[in-house]
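queue> holo job accepted (magnesium ion)
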Amino acid sequence: MLLSKYLLPTLKETPADAEITSHKLMIRAGMLRKVSAGIYNYLPLCLRVIKKIENIVRDEMDKAGALELLMPILTPAELWQESGRWTVYGKELMRMQDRHENEYALGPTHEEVITALARNEVKSYKQLPLCLYQIQDKFRDEVRPRFGVMRSREFIMKDAYSFHSSEKCLDNYYQIMYEAYSNIFKRCGLRFRAVLADSGAIGGDNTHEFMVLAQSGESRVISCPNDNCGYAATDETAKSKIFQPEKEEFLELRLVDTPSQKSIEEVSNFLKLPKYKLVKTLLYKYDDGVAAALIRGDCEVNEIKLKHILNTINLELADDKTIEEISGCEPGYAGPLNLKKQIKLICDSSLKQLTNFVVGANEKDKHYINVNHQRDFKIEKFYDIRLANPGDRCINCDAVLEEYRGIEVGQIFKLGTKYSAKMNAVYNAEDGKLKPFVMGCYGIGITRIVAAAIEQNNDEKGIVWPLNIAPFSVIILPLNKPNSEEFKIAEKIYNEIKIKNIDVVLDDRAVGPGFKFKDAELIGIPYQIIVGAKSLNEQSIEIGIRKTGEKILVKISEVSEKIEELLYEK
Ligand code: ATP
Ligand code: MG
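queue> job finished
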């Protein structure tokens, strides 16, 4: 490739609307241009990176026995209605009508389409297991598209779906996919972790997310530092152990004045009691009405966990009017005793050991002290609705948990019969009965990987591509003008290297050496072959290594060999 013929609109200035490093660098390196919110042109340099990632993904999927296919982007509403997701998916699903007023959605994921395909085409257990995948544009009308291709509205995803005749077979294949995913991210040169994630309504340890470690990551991971344990989970799902106070003898329940003291902080200061002695009563609106979540004052509610327990799609803190209706009092004093209306109480297990605690009295400026559950109000079951935090203890090995941030680049999921049962996708089992497929699904955000890789691999000069996903492996920089001696040598080296099927680009533009170096560094090409006057006299040239800044002096006659050595022996 000749740079003079390439579209490489690099920019000196940092774009004003880009917040994170990868987004800034993708624009500055001439990789990305915005068309509309969360919608982008991937320029030639970017597409080369995308193709390299896709090829690694394809290779590992093929090795895992998956077959590539391509499904439509435009998907009919009927399929989404069959699974029930037409109503559940909400505003993220991009919907549209055709000229006959039939409804469609632009696919955000393809469980429905593939389940319908398997329903029609896979009849017998003899055809199982089967795994199909595609690499395709996906559409999600994200509330806040941001950070460039990190969270866009149109993005490229690899999605795979597997079909099995038993849970055991699925468990097996899940492990194969886990390995394939680990290989993919390793080959892309990323530092990553696989962590337990929220598995929605299905529950259990059914899903892992693959996180690229980065400070700018939107996901919070709670992890155990003990290598023998290795517990790690997203904050949505993480469990932990916390300090448990000694049980005390029950004291007499009392109503006390707490004038204008509403928050945990205020009440704890006013009553001179530690926060854990206070119990928060948070009223939530959900699909079936209003529920109260009770948790110790030093803890926070994890709304994802609460959502699963209430089996609800919608969940939000109740508004003031609702709070007044339920508690009979202005917000700030709600408690489990004497609520005006009976509602469901979801009590966190942090309350289990707690004795003589404080709750709101459902009366303005008043709290109850010395409250004890079972004596003063009944708790039938304790739940885990608590947000785990670093500093808490590991549920497996008791070590002190840590926290890091990550970018979710992939997720693998055991679906079971969630879709096949709803959509009546059945096959003839070995015992002659019709059974729904046991399914798994496996996604990777291809375009998000591009951004994640840059987040992890950059310096003040620009991108530092991991070799396997670099747009070009080598850039040749003749420092003198076209038609100069250096230029001719550079062309010769270029032709020599190109024949070897190495991704090489020659910067043959009529610009100064400073400009060439800046661009080469900005776009992050791993190896630079620098052909300057000095090296010309000595019949040797310099190979610059982008990652370390190191320069190696090599005889001109040995350049292509040295490059091969650098590319293939690492
Ligand atoms: P997130 O929690 O980040 O919204 P998700 O869990 O909804 O993602 P999945 O349904 O698991 O995403 O999709 C598979 C993969 O697709 C994700 O792991 C991620 O890499 C990628 N992805 C999802 N949404 C986007 C997006 N808006 N822009 C770019 N990539 C995305
Ligand atoms: Mg996900």
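queue> The chain has a mean pLDDT of 95.
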